[in-house]
Amino acid sequence: MKKNIFLYLFVFVSLILLYSLVNGNKIQNANEADINKLKAEVKSLKDSVQKGELRLLDMQYFSLENNDDALAYYDHLNLELPTRYIEDKLLETNERKGDNPLIPYEGMESDFKINKIKVMNHRWIVADFSDGQFWGDLIIKYELKDDLSTDFTLLDHLLYTRSN
User: What is the pLDDT of residues 141-163, one digit of tens each?
Assistant: First the structure.
């Protein structure tokens, strides 16, 4: 009888060990597959980040902050952020009642106001304007004088047509 108990116990333990071994291999294979999948995803994300950084550098090419030659025009003014100063001066033109004087259109839904501004260099600005329903773009020439006053001159404009 003792012999049979040891035999049953040995078979039972053997089955448990066999089950553990097979199950452990399956878990290990699944974990390796997950790791490989995550490695591929990380590589893909790194490539996406690199492409995004290159695209950002391309977008910043026409920017006053990245143009040392254009920034040299403002060294004598001791402005810490000339781009921010110029943008603020342009946004001040929105404070007048009615349409912005630089926008050659009359607002249809409300008054046309400048929304977004991109200071290209020490002479040109690209701006977006809208009245809430209609929108367009402006190319503006500006001059920042030694007394920190700013003159803006509209060079070209575009009002987008609504497509229904």
Answer: 999 888 888 999 999 999 987 75
Quick one: tokens of 1?
Answer: 């009888």
DSSP bridge partners of 153: 141
Please give the Cα distance from 62 to 31 (Å, whole number): 48
Report how far apart, in Å, the C-alpha atoms of 29 and of each of 24, 36, 42, 88, 130 are.
9, 11, 20, 60, 58
Q: Provide CB contacts within 8 A for 9, sequence distance 6+.
A: none
Phi, psi dihedral angles at 158 (to 5 degrees)? -150, 130
- Report how many helices (DSSP H) and strands (DSSP E) the chain contains, helices first: 3, 4
Q: Where are the beta strands (DSSP E) in the chain?
A: 113-119, 124-130, 135-144, 150-159
Residue indicated by tokens 């009245």: 131
Alpha-carbon Rg for the chain in angstroms: 34
Which pTM was predicted?
0.67
For 28-84, the pLDDT digits (tens) are 999 999 999 999 999 999 999 999 999 988 888 888 888 788 888 788 888 788 889
Tokens of 23: 């199950």
